């Protein structure tokens, strides 16, 4: 779905920017140009960023790590 009509940014592009390393709304905005024109989409863009970052954090927390360490 289009989040920003002024610059043609979709929710998929916002998510992709996060998957490629953006860690904040500011970084996503700089990378995609979302909310850089009229700004009416800023609330929705922030929501997509927040939800995506939360999903990534939850997924990373679910990754099992070995509790056993050995010396090399």
From TrEMBL:
Cofactor(s) annotated in UniProt: [2Fe-2S] cluster
InterPro entries according to UniProt: BFD-associated_ferredoxin, BFD-like_2Fe2S-bd_dom, BFD-like_2Fe2S-bd_dom_sf
Organism equals: Pseudomonas yamanorum
Keywords recorded for this protein, A-Z: 2Fe-2S, Electron transport, Iron, Iron-sulfur, Metal-binding, Transport
Return the protein name: Bacterioferritin-associated ferredoxin
Classification via Gene3D superfamilies = BFD-like [2Fe-2S]-binding domain
Example GO molecular function term? metal ion binding
Q: Which domain of life is it from?
A: Bacteria
The record's listing under CDD domains reads:
Fer2_BFD (cd19945)
The record places domain BFD-like [2Fe-2S]-binding at: 2-49
Q: Could you tell me which Pfam families the record lists for this protein?
A: Fer2_BFD
Entry's family note: Belongs to the Bfd family.
């Amino acid at each position: 779905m289009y989040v920003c009509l002024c610059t043609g940014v979709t929710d998929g592009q916002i998510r992709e920017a996060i998957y490629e390393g953006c860690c904040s709304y500011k970084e996503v905005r700089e990378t995609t140009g979302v909310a850089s024109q009229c700004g009416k989409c800023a609330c929705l863009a922030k929501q997509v960023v927040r939800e995506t970052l939360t999903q990534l954090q939850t997924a990373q927390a679910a990754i099992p790590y070995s509790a056993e360490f050995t010396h090399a």
